[in-house]
Amino acid sequence: MAAAIAQQPAWAQALAAAGLLVAARLALWLYAAFLRPAKPLRARYGAWAVVTGATDGIGRALALELAAAGLGVVLVGRNPDKLAAVAEEVGARRPGAQTRTFVIDFAADGLAANVAALAESIRGLDVGVLVNNAGLCYPYAQYLHEVDEALARDLIRLNVEAVTRMTHAVLPGMVQGKRGAVVNIGSGAASILPSAPLYTVYAATKA
After folding, report:
1. Residue 62 and residue 183: Cα distance in Å, rounded?
2. Catalytic residue positions?
3. Which pTM does this prediction carry?
4. 37 to 27, 34, 41, 162, 180: CA distances (angstroms)
5. Which end of the chain is more exposed for a tag (fewer CB within 10 A), N or C?
């Protein structure tokens, strides 16, 4: 077979090599995404996870998965009733799982003080995972010059400042323990599309 390949023109050999490289990268991605054994999150990172925006969608799903992996979960959101419902769901799916809730509106004034209060509430916990999931998007597509001041402020506050402050609050404990993971939920609008002219500020804040 090697002799047959050697008889092919250079362009065909180069194309075959490129194809093999792409196939190898795809195989590695498939293994890492779907076939690799799960990591022992509690042993590797720590006993607790903090999840912002934990009442719906991605945040809720990640909170449930982290609890299923044996971590205690601090559920962070702005709606106390939804937080209580998710905490109850975690307990129903994994009896004995530890949960805490903290109510915070990342878009409200006083963000620094609110995050400081959250940090104080988790002091002493072995927080090994932080999921920065809370975020905001446009209510509908708009060009940049159509975005009003309040929306621009809230987009930057939730998608940039809140993520920065949450990481800054939790990271020292991870550094001290020499382990931990920070997961920032981004958006395809900031990476897949070459530009997002109708969601400019959102794309910029979710890069």
Report:
1. 11
2. 202
3. 0.82
4. 15, 9, 12, 33, 19
5. N
